[in-house]
């Protein structure tokens, strides 16, 4: 029987996928390190390739251009994985949504932040600095900032669902307060510059938000 018209078979190799993922992880790790230590403007794609031990063409194929690298590094730092993860799919957000009381929700979020900020805050600061002179970085900075603000409004709505949120201030105002205090800049000020421990930072946030947001 002729097989001329038989559909072409696709070859799937788990090992190949694993190798591709490992290469991408190495590229992002090298980019993260160089953006933080050297700055975005002074770092070239060739520099990242040398640090990761891959060719420039491999970087373009695996991630993209330099602005794509920075976006991928930021998203990876937020999610703790090699890929962007929507807020609703993150483990701590799911646990937060299931928590019965506002105090539990606040505590879960504060604890999550002290796990996220050590990897996010340095690269976020690099993005902030690069946004001053680079249009792509400025657009990414604004996008991430607005996304954080929208997520904080959802957080406030979730606190309100318990009936414990204060009602003498607008919800948008309360969301902005959380947005300002969960920012990487706040972590850098207290932990990096003032020497607070992560546990101290988490306890402070939980206590401060409980006093500021709840009745």
TrEMBL record:
PROSITE patterns: HTH_TETR_2. The keyword Transcription regulation applies. Pfam families: TetR_N. Gene3D superfamilies: Tetracycline Repressor, domain 2. Coiled coil: none annotated. The keyword DNA-binding applies. Residues 44-63 bind DNA. Keywords: DNA-binding, Transcription, Transcription regulation. Residues 21-81 form the HTH tetR-type domain. InterPro entries: Homeodomain-like_sf (IPR009057), HTH-type_TetR-like_transc_reg (IPR050109), HTH_TetR (IPR001647), Tet_transcr_reg_TetR-rel_C_sf (IPR036271). This is HTH tetR-type domain-containing protein.
């Amino acid at each position: 029987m002729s097989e001329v018209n038989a559909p072409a078979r696709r070859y799937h190799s788990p090992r190949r996928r694993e190798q591709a993922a490992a290469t991408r992880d190495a590229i992002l790790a090298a980019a993260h390190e160089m953006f933080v230590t050297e700055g975005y403007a002074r770092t070239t794609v060739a520099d990242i390739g040398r640090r990761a031990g891959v060719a420039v063409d491999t970087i373009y194929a695996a991630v993209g251009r330099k602005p794509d690298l920075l976006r991928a590094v930021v998203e990876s730092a937020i999610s703790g994985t090699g890929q962007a993860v929507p807020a609703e799919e993150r483990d701590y957000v799911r646990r937060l949504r299931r928590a019965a009381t506002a105090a539990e929700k606040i505590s879960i979020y504060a604890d999550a932040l002290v796990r996220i900020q050590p990897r996010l805050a340095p690269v976020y600061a690099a993005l902030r600095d690069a946004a001053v002179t680079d249009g792509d970085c400025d657009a990414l900075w604004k996008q991430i900032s607005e996304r954080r603000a929208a997520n904080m409004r959802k957080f406030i709505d979730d606190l309100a669902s318990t009936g414990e949120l204060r009602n003498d201030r607008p919800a948008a105002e309360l969301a902005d307060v959380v947005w300002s205090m969960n920012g990487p800049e706040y972590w850098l000020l207290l932990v990096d510059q003032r020497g607070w421990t992560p546990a101290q930072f988490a306890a402070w946030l939980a206590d401060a938000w409980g006093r500021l947001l709840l009745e």
